[in-house]
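FORM 12-B: Structure-to-Sequence Request
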């Protein structure tokens, strides 16, 4: 039976484990605020899909939209199954939780591990959105060459053995980074560093796309509108992502939203000006990329820094991420969507800058006490932050690589497409659907018409002859087409 009562006249919820226990009051304003923030974070996930889709070639565009929504489903089931328990069980070790809350058993009206002002079920729902968006960010490494079915199973496994441990050691009161004193307000390490590094590991495992290093991959994003719309979804959703991470409607949440908006604005302008310097063009995609980098950088710091610091964080993160896009060429890793440069490097920069700009006075806006960062003369904080982000990056890269190779040796779970599937495109090969109501012929296909139907004229019936380019090759396709080797 649910052990709650409603107080008059406010109708706040009072929870007591039994008749002799002191009641815990759940504030309805905080609960409403967290429900809104949960919906905003959900909106970010199709936003990621839209941005990824717009940046790809047309023949692969729907695959990322599909995987973003499927990622919500897979992530929600994993979180229900055991993800929440592995990350936030109150019986956790310094590294990972137990299965006390398997199937969300016992997760209902009791106070949450994050705040006594909201129930555990609401906290679990909010954190579920974090898990979902993290795995959708990570699958950017599969762009244009990942098989849909195995990728869905990969999501479930990755959340279990990569995301949940990092979330546990960062946010669970028993986690080693939390105990050490690491500061991560909204997910620099569990969300951005883990997903960005995982994307790099996936891209390294899959190898280069067909045509890498040639003009065939020097394409422009197929739909800039998708990129702009996806960025808009991300920007507005980030208010719930960072603003809700304090788990209450208070002054600290207001500050988190202020610095989130400011860092995104400065980041967008920084990247846009850096691109203008090179090409003398005011790039919309450049602005969107910079805005996302600013949002990534401010994520771990948002509940600890003031507005002036957010300007510095937005500028530095966008500038470093812009320059980091060259890393894939130096390392010769085909990270098609620059997920590592944006989220892996951006998350690490934000994590380290938190050590410089964190203020005890900002954290204290909701009563939280921290020693602060360098601005408060707490210089050891940089070592804590460095340990946290280095551990997350190394762990995510190593375990993701192992997971990819485990899938590799199970034939029906192999993650990489065949060359033929890559040429045709993920949408046609695995979905049979497209983002637009027409089919464009990709130059890579080099299709030639082969007439295969019987024509009738006044002199009788005869079969059409093959076009000269197709004659004698022996690789004609039913339906009247052939593909050059």
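FORM 12-B RESPONSE
SEQUENCE OUT:
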């Amino acid at each position: 039976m649910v052990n709650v009562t409603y107080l008059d006249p406010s109708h706040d919820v009072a929870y007591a484990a039994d008749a002799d226990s002191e009641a815990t009051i759940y504030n309805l304003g905080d609960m409403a605020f967290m429900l809104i923030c949960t919906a905003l974070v959900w909106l970010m996930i199709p936003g990621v899909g839209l941005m990824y889709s717009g940046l790809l070639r047309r023949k692969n565009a729907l695959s990322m939209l599909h995987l973003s929504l499927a990622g919500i489903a897979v992530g929600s089931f994993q979180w229900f199954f055991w993800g929440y328990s592995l990350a936030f069980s109150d019986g956790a070790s310094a590294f990972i939780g137990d299965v006390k809350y398997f199937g969300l058993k016992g997760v209902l009206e009791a106070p949450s591990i994050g705040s006594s002002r909201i129930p555990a079920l609401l906290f679990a729902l909010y954190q579920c959105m974090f898990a979902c968006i993290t795995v959708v960010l990570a699958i950017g490494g599969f762009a244009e060459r990942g098989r849909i079915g195995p990728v869905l199973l990969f999501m479930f496994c990755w959340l279990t053995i990569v995301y949940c441990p990092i979330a546990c050691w960062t946010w669970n009161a028993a986690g080693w980074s939390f105990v050490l004193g690491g500061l991560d307000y909204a997910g620099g390490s569990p969300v951005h560093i883990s997903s960005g590094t995982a994307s790099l590991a996936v891209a390294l495992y899959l190898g280069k796309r067909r045509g890498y290093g040639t003009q065939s991959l020097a394409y422009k994003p197929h739909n800039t509108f998708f990129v702009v719309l996806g960025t808009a979804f991300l920007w507005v959703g980030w208010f719930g992502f960072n603003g809700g991470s304090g788990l209450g409607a208070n002054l600290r949440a207001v500050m988190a939203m202020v610095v989130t908006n400011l860092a995104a604005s400065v980041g967008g302008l920084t990247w846009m000006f850096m691109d203008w310097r090179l090409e003398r063009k005011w790039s919309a995609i450049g602005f969107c990329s910079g805005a996302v980098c600013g949002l990534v950088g401010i994520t771990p710091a948002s509940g600890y820094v003031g507005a002036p610091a957010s300007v510095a964080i937005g500028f530095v993160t966008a500038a470093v991420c812009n320059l980091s896009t060259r890393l894939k060429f130096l390392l010769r890793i085909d990270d098609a969507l620059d997920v590592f440069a944006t989220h892996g490097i951006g998350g690490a920069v934000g994590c380290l800058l938190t050590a410089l700009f964190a203020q005890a006075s900002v954290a204290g806006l909701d009563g939280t006490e921290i020693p602060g960062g360098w601005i408060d003369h707490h210089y050891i904080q940089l070592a804590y932050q460095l340990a946290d982000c280095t551990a997350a990056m190394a762990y995510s890269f190593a375990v993701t690589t192992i997971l990819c190779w485990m899938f590799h040796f199970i034939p029906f779970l192999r993650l990489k497409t065949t060359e033929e599937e890559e040429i045709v495109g993920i949408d046609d090969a695995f979905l049979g659907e497209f983002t637009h109501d027409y089919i464009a012929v990709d130059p890579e296909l080099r299709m030639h018409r082969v007439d295969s139907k019987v024509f009738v004229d006044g002199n009788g019936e005869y079969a059409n002859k093959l076009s000269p380019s197709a004659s004698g090759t022996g690789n004609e396709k039913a339906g009247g087409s052939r593909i050059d080797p």
